């Protein structure tokens, strides 16, 4: 699948902050290919969202969707979405044009924190690359809030979380792929390309692993999922080799492809900002770009193994009126019991395999 560049380089500071702030607000929702390996190529949108193409119906109606491990429903705008401006600049599903459409009409409402979508359920054939999933139930959205959807570069969301968090008890697409024997193994794997100058922006493989991208012997540490809702597991700790320690005595963490940064509890994240001598602006922080080479590695200890981010992995280089800004890829949310959310800044360093047969997630070293 060919990809288009979405943003000029370097990325714009104000646009990035706006995009991430909207995504952040939506995160408060915790309180959205051939057998053994169809590659769904993902577009890298400002590193704040990776998305790819799917189709619904017969003949095919095409949509771009975020593949989101933090939610479990599939939805796209409906041709009945007359009154939401957010629908107008996106593709919408026309049930009258599909010979494989099956009526359902159960109401659907999903709240994402900054915004919400409402509509009803319908059933049709879902096509992802060469995979054809029969009788996939999805949301036809008739009303969506202006933020964050009006300016979103994607039409809808395809959730890759567990069925337990699916609104309306809808079977998520990956489970239908297994039930219909479209994929050999109950897994999907992500590669997210953190270099916005390169294409593709990344890839998602249903049912397999791209062994050309991962050092195979590094996928031998499957991390048990502690709660079959999100892709949540226990993390042993986060530290620098120069003395900073966070997530002491262990903490909960969630692997979330729908989040751009690494989110953590206020106490821990502010501790990281202080250790890195960063200038804090609200939930974000930046450092002097000249200091980047002197910053420490940050080590995530998970299942008795160390996963290390070097400074260039957790620094986002943005443009602010012709001046380069070095923003930290860490942020925090207000509230108590905030889990760590390992978004694209973390996931982009590794090859991630989500195994819903064995209920594990694995982080492999990229080649």
How are the SSEs placed, and which strands pair?
Elements: E1 11-12, H1 13-27, E2 38-41, E3 43-45, E4 49-56, E5 61-68, E6 74-77, H2 85-88, E7 102-111, E8 116-128, E9 131-144, H3 146-149, E10 156-159, H4 173-179, E11 187-192, E12 202-206, E13 223-224, E14 227-228, E15 231-235, E16 237-239, E17 245-246, E18 251-255, E19 262-264, H5 266-275, E20 279-281, E21 284-287, E22 298-302, E23 305-309, H6 311-314, E24 315-320, E25 323-328, E26 330-332, E27 340-342, H7 344-347, E28 350-355, E29 360-365
Parallel strand pairs: 1-24, 5-10, 6-9, 18-27, 19-26
Antiparallel strand pairs: 2-12, 3-4, 4-5, 4-8, 6-10, 7-8, 8-9, 11-12, 11-28, 13-29, 14-15, 15-18, 16-17, 16-22, 19-27, 20-21, 21-25, 22-23, 24-25, 28-29
Written account of the structure:
The active site is at 68, 256. This is Putative aspartyl protease. Helix content is 13%, strand content 41%. The protein is built from seven helices and 29 strands. The chain has helices spanning 13-27, 85-88, 146-149, 173-179, 266-275, 311-314, 344-347, and strands at 11-12, 38-41, 43-45, 49-56, 61-68, 74-77, 102-111, 116-128, 131-144, 156-159, 187-192, 202-206, 223-224, 227-228, 231-235, 237-239, 245-246, 251-255, 262-264, 279-281, 284-287, 298-302, 305-309, 315-320, 323-328, 330-332, 340-342, 350-355, 360-365. The strands form five sheets. Strands 2-12-11-28-29-13 form a six-stranded antiparallel sheet. Strands 4-5-10-6-9-8 form a six-stranded mixed barrel. Strands 14-15-18-27-19-26 form a six-stranded mixed sheet. Strand 14 (227-228) and strand 15 (231-235) form a beta hairpin.
